[in-house]
Amino acid sequence: MKPIEDIKPLLETPKKVVITMHQKPDADAMGSSLAMYHYLRQKGHEITVISPTNFPDFLKWMPGADLVVDFESSQDKAMSALEAVDLLFCLDFNALYRTKALAPYLEQLKSIRILIDHHLEPQPGFDYGVSDTAASSTAQLVYETLYKLGEEQYITDEIAQCIYAGAMTDTGSFRFASTSARVHRMVADLLDRGLKHELIHQAIYDNFLENRLRFIGHSLLHRMEVFYEYNTAMMAIPYTDLKRFDLQTGDTEGLVNFLLSIQGIKMAALIIDRREEVKLSFRSKGNFDVNTFARKYFEGGGHFNAAGGRSTDGLERTVQRFIKAMEENEDLLQ
Ligand code: 5GP
Ligand code: MN
Protein backbone atom coordinates (compact mmCIF):
# COMPACT_ATOMS: atom_id res chain seq x y z
CA MET A 1 0.00 0.00 0.00
CA LYS A 2 1.49 3.33 -1.05
CA PRO A 3 1.29 6.24 1.42
CA ILE A 4 -1.88 8.27 1.36
CA GLU A 5 -0.11 11.48 0.27
CA ASP A 6 0.75 9.76 -3.02
CA ILE A 7 -2.89 10.18 -4.11
CA LYS A 8 -2.23 13.87 -4.68
CA PRO A 9 -1.58 13.60 -8.45
CA LEU A 10 -4.76 11.52 -8.83
CA LEU A 11 -6.80 14.36 -7.38
CA GLU A 12 -5.53 16.93 -9.88
CA THR A 13 -8.11 16.05 -12.51
CA PRO A 14 -11.84 15.48 -11.83
CA LYS A 15 -12.56 11.90 -10.81
CA LYS A 16 -15.59 9.82 -10.06
CA VAL A 17 -15.27 8.97 -6.40
CA VAL A 18 -17.13 6.64 -4.07
CA ILE A 19 -16.59 6.96 -0.33
CA THR A 20 -17.81 4.11 1.79
CA MET A 21 -17.69 3.03 5.43
CA HIS A 22 -18.61 0.10 7.67
CA GLN A 23 -22.18 -1.06 8.13
CA LYS A 24 -24.30 0.72 10.74
CA PRO A 25 -21.81 3.59 10.67
CA ASP A 26 -20.98 5.42 13.86
CA ALA A 27 -19.96 9.06 14.17
CA ASP A 28 -16.36 8.27 13.21
CA ALA A 29 -17.26 6.35 10.06
CA MET A 30 -19.80 8.97 9.01
CA GLY A 31 -17.75 11.97 10.15
CA SER A 32 -14.57 10.87 8.41
CA SER A 33 -16.47 10.00 5.21
CA LEU A 34 -18.31 13.32 5.11
CA ALA A 35 -15.13 15.28 5.93
CA MET A 36 -13.46 13.60 2.96
CA TYR A 37 -16.54 14.32 0.86
CA HIS A 38 -16.46 18.05 1.67
CA TYR A 39 -12.76 18.22 0.82
CA LEU A 40 -13.06 16.35 -2.49
CA ARG A 41 -16.09 18.37 -3.50
CA GLN A 42 -14.12 21.60 -3.19
CA LYS A 43 -11.56 19.99 -5.50
CA GLY A 44 -14.21 19.46 -8.18
CA HIS A 45 -14.70 15.70 -8.04
CA GLU A 46 -17.98 13.87 -8.52
CA ILE A 47 -18.62 12.01 -5.29
CA THR A 48 -21.11 9.49 -3.98
CA VAL A 49 -21.01 8.59 -0.29
CA ILE A 50 -22.45 5.13 0.31
CA SER A 51 -23.38 3.69 3.66
CA PRO A 52 -23.87 -0.09 3.55
CA THR A 53 -26.92 0.27 5.80
CA ASN A 54 -29.00 2.94 7.48
CA PHE A 55 -27.46 4.97 10.28
CA PRO A 56 -28.57 6.52 13.59
CA ASP A 57 -30.76 9.61 13.68
CA PHE A 58 -28.22 11.31 15.95
CA LEU A 59 -25.86 11.56 12.96
CA LYS A 60 -28.36 13.23 10.64
CA TRP A 61 -27.27 16.73 11.68
CA MET A 62 -23.87 16.17 10.08
CA PRO A 63 -23.30 18.44 7.08
CA GLY A 64 -23.85 16.27 4.01
CA ALA A 65 -25.61 13.40 5.84
CA ASP A 66 -28.70 14.00 3.69
CA LEU A 67 -26.67 13.09 0.58
CA VAL A 68 -25.51 9.72 1.88
CA VAL A 69 -26.86 6.81 -0.15
CA ASP A 70 -28.09 3.88 1.95
CA PHE A 71 -27.12 0.77 0.00
CA GLU A 72 -29.93 -1.29 1.51
CA SER A 73 -32.72 1.09 0.57
CA SER A 74 -31.21 2.71 -2.58
CA GLN A 75 -29.27 -0.10 -4.19
CA ASP A 76 -29.74 1.18 -7.77
CA LYS A 77 -28.30 4.57 -6.97
CA ALA A 78 -25.33 3.01 -5.20
CA MET A 79 -24.73 0.54 -8.03
CA SER A 80 -24.69 3.19 -10.73
CA ALA A 81 -22.08 5.15 -8.77
CA LEU A 82 -20.00 2.00 -8.32
CA GLU A 83 -20.17 1.13 -12.02
CA ALA A 84 -18.38 4.34 -12.99
CA VAL A 85 -16.03 4.75 -10.04
CA ASP A 86 -12.36 5.75 -10.51
CA LEU A 87 -11.38 6.06 -6.85
CA LEU A 88 -12.88 4.06 -4.01
CA PHE A 89 -12.26 5.42 -0.51
CA CYS A 90 -12.78 2.92 2.33
CA LEU A 91 -13.04 4.71 5.64
CA ASP A 92 -13.06 3.36 9.19
CA PHE A 93 -13.00 -0.36 8.44
CA ASN A 94 -10.25 -2.91 7.97
CA ALA A 95 -11.96 -5.68 5.99
CA LEU A 96 -14.50 -5.54 3.19
CA TYR A 97 -16.90 -7.92 4.96
CA ARG A 98 -17.63 -5.07 7.36
CA THR A 99 -19.64 -3.48 4.54
CA LYS A 100 -22.08 -6.40 4.72
CA ALA A 101 -24.18 -6.80 1.53
CA LEU A 102 -22.04 -4.22 -0.26
CA ALA A 103 -18.87 -6.31 0.14
CA PRO A 104 -19.24 -8.61 -2.91
CA TYR A 105 -19.66 -5.55 -5.16
CA LEU A 106 -16.63 -3.80 -3.70
CA GLU A 107 -14.54 -6.94 -4.14
CA GLN A 108 -15.19 -6.96 -7.91
CA LEU A 109 -14.33 -3.32 -8.51
CA LYS A 110 -11.37 -2.56 -10.75
CA SER A 111 -10.97 0.99 -9.44
CA ILE A 112 -8.13 2.31 -7.34
CA ARG A 113 -8.71 1.48 -3.66
CA ILE A 114 -7.76 3.85 -0.88
CA LEU A 115 -7.90 2.94 2.80
CA ILE A 116 -8.03 5.36 5.71
CA ASP A 117 -8.46 3.43 8.94
CA HIS A 118 -7.27 2.81 12.49
CA HIS A 119 -8.39 -0.79 13.12
CA LEU A 120 -5.92 -3.59 13.77
CA GLU A 121 -4.79 -5.92 10.97
CA PRO A 122 -6.23 -4.40 7.79
CA GLN A 123 -6.82 -6.81 4.92
CA PRO A 124 -4.46 -6.54 1.93
CA GLY A 125 -5.48 -5.22 -1.50
CA PHE A 126 -5.46 -1.45 -1.06
CA ASP A 127 -3.43 0.66 -3.50
CA TYR A 128 -2.99 3.71 -1.31
CA GLY A 129 -3.77 4.54 2.24
CA VAL A 130 -3.05 4.94 5.86
CA SER A 131 -3.69 2.32 8.53
CA ASP A 132 -2.63 3.76 11.84
CA THR A 133 -3.85 1.84 14.87
CA ALA A 134 -2.38 4.47 17.20
CA ALA A 135 -4.76 7.09 15.80
CA SER A 136 -7.71 8.04 18.00
CA SER A 137 -10.11 7.85 15.11
CA THR A 138 -10.37 7.69 11.35
CA ALA A 139 -11.54 11.30 11.49
CA GLN A 140 -8.13 12.25 12.88
CA LEU A 141 -6.47 10.44 9.98
CA VAL A 142 -8.59 12.36 7.46
CA TYR A 143 -7.56 15.60 9.16
CA GLU A 144 -3.89 14.58 9.03
CA THR A 145 -4.27 13.48 5.41
CA LEU A 146 -5.33 17.00 4.46
CA TYR A 147 -2.14 18.32 6.07
CA LYS A 148 -0.01 15.64 4.38
CA LEU A 149 -1.50 16.68 1.04
CA GLY A 150 -0.71 20.32 1.87
CA GLU A 151 -4.44 21.01 1.58
CA GLU A 152 -5.27 22.18 5.10
CA GLN A 153 -6.63 25.44 3.70
CA TYR A 154 -9.65 23.38 2.62
CA ILE A 155 -10.65 22.63 6.24
CA THR A 156 -14.01 24.40 6.39
CA ASP A 157 -16.33 24.56 9.37
CA GLU A 158 -18.30 21.66 7.90
CA ILE A 159 -15.16 19.53 7.76
CA ALA A 160 -14.16 20.58 11.28
CA GLN A 161 -17.57 19.53 12.63
CA CYS A 162 -17.39 16.11 10.99
CA ILE A 163 -13.85 15.49 12.18
CA TYR A 164 -14.54 16.62 15.72
CA ALA A 165 -17.60 14.36 15.95
CA GLY A 166 -15.57 11.31 14.91
CA ALA A 167 -12.69 12.00 17.28
CA MET A 168 -14.98 12.87 20.17
CA THR A 169 -17.02 9.68 19.97
CA ASP A 170 -14.14 7.28 19.27
CA THR A 171 -12.21 8.62 22.27
CA GLY A 172 -15.24 8.44 24.61
CA SER A 173 -15.30 12.25 24.77
CA PHE A 174 -11.50 12.43 25.03
CA ARG A 175 -11.04 9.98 27.89
CA PHE A 176 -9.83 6.65 26.48
CA ALA A 177 -6.13 5.77 26.38
CA SER A 178 -6.19 6.62 22.64
CA THR A 179 -6.66 10.32 23.54
CA SER A 180 -3.07 11.37 22.89
CA ALA A 181 -1.61 14.85 22.78
CA ARG A 182 -1.98 14.45 19.02
CA VAL A 183 -5.78 14.42 19.47
CA HIS A 184 -5.76 17.54 21.63
CA ARG A 185 -3.48 19.34 19.17
CA MET A 186 -5.93 18.61 16.40
CA VAL A 187 -8.86 19.78 18.51
CA ALA A 188 -6.98 22.98 19.41
CA ASP A 189 -6.45 23.63 15.70
CA LEU A 190 -10.15 23.03 14.96
CA LEU A 191 -11.15 25.41 17.77
CA ASP A 192 -8.72 28.02 16.41
CA ARG A 193 -10.55 27.65 13.13
CA GLY A 194 -13.81 28.62 14.85
CA LEU A 195 -15.41 25.25 15.62
CA LYS A 196 -18.32 25.37 18.10
CA HIS A 197 -17.70 22.11 19.90
CA GLU A 198 -20.54 22.27 22.45
CA LEU A 199 -23.13 22.10 19.67
CA ILE A 200 -21.63 18.82 18.51
CA HIS A 201 -21.80 17.29 21.98
CA GLN A 202 -25.45 18.31 22.20
CA ALA A 203 -26.29 17.03 18.75
CA ILE A 204 -24.85 13.60 19.52
CA TYR A 205 -25.41 13.04 23.24
CA ASP A 206 -28.48 15.13 24.11
CA ASN A 207 -30.68 14.14 21.24
CA PHE A 208 -32.36 10.87 22.19
CA LEU A 209 -35.98 9.99 22.73
CA GLU A 210 -37.45 9.00 26.08
CA ASN A 211 -37.76 5.34 25.06
CA ARG A 212 -33.99 4.95 24.85
CA LEU A 213 -33.51 6.05 28.45
CA ARG A 214 -36.28 3.72 29.61
CA PHE A 215 -34.61 0.90 27.68
CA ILE A 216 -31.27 1.63 29.38
CA GLY A 217 -32.95 1.57 32.80
CA HIS A 218 -34.66 -1.71 32.00
CA SER A 219 -31.46 -3.26 30.69
CA LEU A 220 -29.38 -2.24 33.72
CA LEU A 221 -32.03 -3.62 36.05
CA HIS A 222 -32.96 -6.84 34.30
CA ARG A 223 -30.34 -7.78 31.72
CA MET A 224 -27.04 -7.19 33.43
CA GLU A 225 -24.93 -9.91 35.00
CA VAL A 226 -21.66 -9.37 36.85
CA PHE A 227 -19.04 -12.09 37.16
CA TYR A 228 -16.78 -10.69 39.86
CA GLU A 229 -14.45 -13.69 39.87
CA TYR A 230 -13.69 -12.92 36.20
CA ASN A 231 -13.83 -9.11 36.51
CA THR A 232 -16.40 -9.18 33.73
CA ALA A 233 -19.86 -7.69 33.29
CA MET A 234 -22.29 -8.78 30.61
CA MET A 235 -25.60 -7.65 29.26
CA ALA A 236 -27.69 -9.85 26.98
CA ILE A 237 -30.54 -8.11 25.18
CA PRO A 238 -33.29 -10.24 23.66
CA TYR A 239 -34.89 -9.18 20.40
CA THR A 240 -38.19 -8.67 22.24
CA ASP A 241 -36.62 -5.77 24.20
CA LEU A 242 -35.58 -4.04 20.96
CA LYS A 243 -39.22 -4.28 19.81
CA ARG A 244 -40.81 -3.38 23.15
CA PHE A 245 -38.82 -0.15 23.44
CA ASP A 246 -39.06 0.54 19.71
CA LEU A 247 -35.29 0.93 19.44
CA GLN A 248 -33.83 2.43 16.29
CA THR A 249 -30.36 2.14 14.80
CA GLY A 250 -27.83 3.64 17.20
CA ASP A 251 -29.99 3.45 20.33
CA THR A 252 -27.78 0.78 21.92
CA GLU A 253 -24.60 2.75 21.27
CA GLY A 254 -22.75 3.53 24.51
CA LEU A 255 -24.69 1.00 26.59
CA VAL A 256 -21.66 -1.27 26.96
CA ASN A 257 -19.72 1.52 28.67
CA PHE A 258 -22.05 1.47 31.68
CA LEU A 259 -20.77 -2.03 32.46
CA LEU A 260 -17.20 -0.88 32.47
CA SER A 261 -17.99 1.75 35.11
CA ILE A 262 -18.37 -0.94 37.80
CA GLN A 263 -15.41 -0.99 40.16
CA GLY A 264 -12.87 -3.67 39.28
CA ILE A 265 -14.49 -4.67 35.98
CA LYS A 266 -11.94 -5.28 33.23
CA MET A 267 -14.12 -6.60 30.43
CA ALA A 268 -17.63 -5.63 29.41
CA ALA A 269 -19.75 -7.47 26.89
CA LEU A 270 -23.00 -6.35 25.33
CA ILE A 271 -24.73 -9.17 23.46
CA ILE A 272 -27.72 -8.20 21.34
CA ASP A 273 -30.06 -10.46 19.47
CA ARG A 274 -30.61 -8.60 16.20
CA ARG A 275 -32.50 -11.58 14.81
CA GLU A 276 -30.51 -11.94 11.56
CA GLU A 277 -27.47 -12.44 13.81
CA VAL A 278 -26.31 -11.87 17.35
CA LYS A 279 -24.01 -8.87 17.63
CA LEU A 280 -21.41 -8.62 20.37
CA SER A 281 -19.63 -5.52 21.64
CA PHE A 282 -16.62 -5.77 23.89
CA ARG A 283 -14.83 -3.13 25.91
CA SER A 284 -11.95 -3.46 28.32
CA LYS A 285 -9.94 -1.41 30.76
CA GLY A 286 -6.21 -1.89 31.00
CA ASN A 287 -4.37 -4.90 29.63
CA PHE A 288 -7.13 -7.26 28.51
CA ASP A 289 -7.08 -7.43 24.69
CA VAL A 290 -10.64 -7.61 23.39
CA ASN A 291 -9.48 -7.46 19.75
CA THR A 292 -7.82 -10.87 20.16
CA PHE A 293 -10.78 -12.13 22.17
CA ALA A 294 -13.33 -11.05 19.51
CA ARG A 295 -11.23 -12.56 16.73
CA LYS A 296 -10.70 -15.85 18.50
CA TYR A 297 -14.27 -16.53 19.65
CA PHE A 298 -16.69 -14.39 17.63
CA GLU A 299 -15.35 -13.80 14.07
CA GLY A 300 -14.71 -10.19 14.97
CA GLY A 301 -12.00 -7.71 15.81
CA GLY A 302 -11.46 -4.00 16.31
CA HIS A 303 -9.10 -2.39 18.78
CA PHE A 304 -7.27 -3.49 21.92
CA ASN A 305 -9.85 -1.96 24.30
CA ALA A 306 -12.92 -1.89 22.01
CA ALA A 307 -13.95 -4.60 19.63
CA GLY A 308 -16.96 -6.42 18.28
CA GLY A 309 -18.04 -9.72 16.83
CA ARG A 310 -21.04 -11.73 15.73
CA SER A 311 -22.63 -15.10 16.08
CA THR A 312 -25.36 -17.04 14.32
CA ASP A 313 -26.04 -19.34 17.27
CA GLY A 314 -28.97 -17.42 18.74
CA LEU A 315 -28.86 -15.42 21.95
CA GLU A 316 -28.88 -18.19 24.51
CA ARG A 317 -26.12 -20.27 22.94
CA THR A 318 -24.05 -17.18 22.23
CA VAL A 319 -24.26 -16.17 25.88
CA GLN A 320 -23.15 -19.68 26.90
CA ARG A 321 -20.25 -19.48 24.46
CA PHE A 322 -19.31 -16.09 25.83
CA ILE A 323 -19.29 -17.38 29.41
CA LYS A 324 -17.12 -20.32 28.36
CA ALA A 325 -14.71 -17.99 26.54
CA MET A 326 -14.57 -15.74 29.60
CA GLU A 327 -13.74 -18.75 31.78
CA GLU A 328 -10.98 -19.78 29.39
CA ASN A 329 -9.49 -16.30 29.81
CA GLU A 330 -9.61 -16.31 33.60
CA ASP A 331 -5.88 -15.71 33.99
CA LEU A 332 -5.79 -12.80 31.58
CA LEU A 333 -8.77 -11.22 33.31
CA GLN A 334 -7.09 -11.07 36.75
P1 5GP B 1 -18.88 -1.58 18.55
O1 5GP B 1 -18.86 -2.46 19.75
O2 5GP B 1 -18.99 -0.13 18.92
O3 5GP B 1 -19.84 -2.02 17.51
O4 5GP B 1 -17.45 -1.75 17.89
C1 5GP B 1 -16.27 -1.55 18.61
C2 5GP B 1 -15.10 -1.57 17.66
O5 5GP B 1 -14.94 -2.88 17.10
C3 5GP B 1 -15.28 -0.65 16.47
O6 5GP B 1 -14.02 -0.11 16.15
C4 5GP B 1 -15.76 -1.56 15.38
O7 5GP B 1 -15.38 -1.06 14.13
C5 5GP B 1 -15.10 -2.89 15.71
N1 5GP B 1 -16.00 -3.99 15.36
C6 5GP B 1 -17.27 -4.17 15.76
N2 5GP B 1 -17.79 -5.32 15.26
C7 5GP B 1 -16.81 -5.89 14.51
C8 5GP B 1 -16.73 -7.07 13.72
O8 5GP B 1 -17.68 -7.86 13.61
N3 5GP B 1 -15.55 -7.29 13.10
C9 5GP B 1 -14.48 -6.46 13.21
N4 5GP B 1 -13.36 -6.76 12.56
N5 5GP B 1 -14.53 -5.35 13.93
C10 5GP B 1 -15.67 -5.04 14.58
MN1 MN C 1 -13.38 4.57 14.19
Task: Describe the protein in words.
One of its GO terms (molecular function) is nucleic acid binding. This is Bifunctional oligoribonuclease/PAP phosphatase NrnA. It comes from Chitinophaga agrisoli. This protein has 2 domains: 2-205, Alpha-Beta Complex (inorganic pyrophosphatase (n-terminal core)); 210-328, Diaminopimelate Epimerase, Chain A, domain 1, CATH 3.10.310. It is built from 12 helices and 13 strands. The chain has helices at residues 27-42, 75-83, 103-108, 138-148, 157-170, 181-192, 197-205, 210-222, 239-244, 255-260, 290-298, 315-328, and strands at residues 2-3, 16-21, 46-51, 69-70, 87-91, 112-117, 128-131, 224-227, 232-237, 267-273, 278-284, 301-302, 306-311. Helix 1 (27-42) packs parallel to helix 4, helix 4 packs across helix 5 (157-170) and helix 5 crosses helix 7. It starts with a strand and ends in a 6-residue tail after the last helix. The mean pLDDT is 97. Residues 22, 95, 98, 119, 281, 300-303, 306-310 line the site of guanosine-5'-monophosphate. Manganese (II) ion is lined by residues 28, 92, 118, 137-138, 170.
